[in-house]
Amino acid sequence: MQLFYDPDVQRGPHALRAEEARHAFQVLRKRVGDELNLVDGKGGWYKATVASISKRECLIDVTLLRREAARASYSTTLLVAPTKNIDRFEWILEKTTEIGIDFIQPILTQHSERKNIRTDRLERVIESAMKQSLQAWLPALGNLCSFAEALQQSDPAGQKYLAYLGGQNTPQLHRTCRPGGHVTIAVGPEGGFSPAEAELAVSADFNFVSLGPQRLRTETAAITAVHTIAQLNW
Questions:
Q1: Burial of 80 (C-beta count, 10 Å sphere; 0-12/13-18/19+)
Q2: Where is the Ribosomal RNA small subunit methyltransferase E methyltransferase domain (predicted)?
Q3: Judgement on whether residues 101 and 177 belong to the same structural domain of the protein
Q4: Looking at the 3D structure of the chain, how many domains does it have?
Q5: Which of 84, 200, 201, 210 can pair with 206 through a Cys bridge, CB separation 3.0 to 4.6 Å?
Q6: Whether residues 173 and 194 fall in one domain
């Protein structure tokens, strides 16, 4: 199945947004009368028939198939420091979207090697991963902020964990996290979180967790954490 994404799609006559129209015409060679499958990123699934199409515009007739009440019985927020190699950070976004993530908050930490990101480009990576994995929910991407700001914005009622290398007898995430509800998991940069940042996280009610005995790259740790939380809820 080839999915199209349009956050403003609705039943009846509708013009696909320009990027998706170009993809339908130039890449997939769609023609009048062809059927399209669409999602709105908010749980809605749609089927449409191409009414007219050109390089610049694709007009469609849309029917609502179904609307999901929720993405899942749980939700996950990932606080993660962007990697020095932006390709690795894009890989985090792609794979965590495929696994199932609700919100990704890029953070600046003491050991961060990347101080800026292009949010618009990264949002396209997430969108593509959502469509490729045939999902109807688009994860949200926050603007880059300090680790302290991200801690302040974390859900006070949810479970909150920090993947930390400096703890003693740190429990493993899969033995600590409980199914259901909202989970926030924080993953640091290549150099890990500093002791001061770990203390700051504890003051914000985060608990230290381990992701296993090996030392993991940031991208491996992020994907491992999100997958562990997903497995506990499958």
A1: buried
A2: 75-229
A3: yes
A4: 2
A5: 201
A6: yes
- Work out the burial of residue 115: count CB atoms within 10 Å of its CB; fewer than 13 is exposed, 13-18 middle, 19 or more buried: exposed
* Together in a domain, 15 and 124: no
Tell me if 102 sits within 8 A of 139, measured CB to CB.
Answer: yes
| pLDDT (tens digit per residue) in 135-152 | 999 999 999 999 999 999
Distance CA 217, CA 188 (A): 9
Kindly report the CATH number assigned to the domain that includes residue 196.
3.40.1280.10
Both structure tokens of 129: 């991963």
> Is the Cα dihedral 32, 38, 44, 45 positive or negative?
positive
Nearest to 145 by CA among 180, 176, 107: 107
Tokens of 56: 């610049």
CB 94 within 8 A of CB 123: no
Task: State both tokens at 49.
Answer: 């028939």
- The pTM for the full model equals 0.93
Alpha carbon of 147 to those of 66, 80, 108, 111: distances in Å? 39, 9, 6, 11
With tokens 């005995």, the residue in question is 213
100 and 32 inside one domain: no
Q: Is the pLDDT reported for residue 190 higher than 80?
A: yes
CATH label of the domain that carries residue 54 = 2.40.240.20
